[in-house]
Amino acid sequence: DVKVTQSSRYLVKRTGEKVFLECVQDMDHENMFWYRQDPGLGLRLIYFSYDVKMKEKGDIPEGYSVSREKKERFSLILESASTNQTSMYLCASSFLSSGSSYNEQFFGPGTRLTVL
Amino acid sequence: AQKITQTQPGMFVQEKEAVTLDCTYDTSDPSYGLFWYKQPSSGEMIFLIYQGSYDQQNATEGRYSLNFQKARKSANLVISASQLGDSAMYFCAMSIVMEYGNKLVFGAGTILRVKS
User: Fold this and answer.
1) Which of A37, A57, B44, B93 could lock B35 by a disulfide, CB 3.0 to 4.6 Å apart?
2) Which residue(s) pair with A111 in the sheet?
3) Which of A13, A10, A6, A8 is CA-nearest to residue A85?
């Protein structure tokens, strides 16, 4: 079974802190993704990575950065956390699809981040 | 721009009855895929069903079927014989083919409650 794990289920941080959210997948997937989920907005893509050290901005990258030093690990960084970054953060991974529209993404359990 | 619209914030269904969750999409790409995911209260995202834009037949997976009407740009999920365990948030998503892999665009979701 594909397994995507995230470092924390719940996290509470203070405004201005630097926050690291870690995601690890064990299926040798090329692609990895970070989403945030907010009520009424669904999931929105923050960043994705298609290879080690490669990254692309998603739809809402402002206030976030990412790091992918190893294929299995994709980190989301909040350089200076703010209260409007309180949200559920979901990591996902998938194989490289090579032009096919079928590309199931496998999700981690999510991290509920609260910024006070 | 690609967009997914789920117009039903919440739905109720009686146990053992069928229910349809609506999804409309907007894209000008000829190649795309449509996914449905289920998110129980525990938070994990569970893949349910996929339909490719070139697929001639509607997708089915057990009690789930996808009513794909390409001309109307709709991809409704039909759950037959609802069970209490079907109570969850349901997301419709569209895959967008990119050079280095696909990204998913999600709708806002529909909360389904199954009544006994």
Assistant:
1) B93
2) A89
3) A13
Smallest Cα distance from B42 to chain A, Å? 8
Collapsing DSSP states into helix, strand and coil, what is residue B3? strand
Q: At a CB cut-off of 8 Å and minimum separation 6, what does B56 contact? A: none
pLDDT tens figures, A61-114: 999 999 999 999 999 999 999 999 999 999 999 988 767 778 889 999 999 999
Q: Do A88 and B44 touch (CB under 8 A)?
A: no
Residues contacting B71, CB < 8 A, separation 6+? none
Give A3's contacts (C-beta < 8 A, 6+ positions apart): A25, A26, A27
DSSP readout, B6-26? ---SEEEEETTS-EEE--EEE
Q: Is B95 on the interface with A (CB under 8 A)?
A: yes
Of B35, B43, B105, the CB nearest to A110: B43
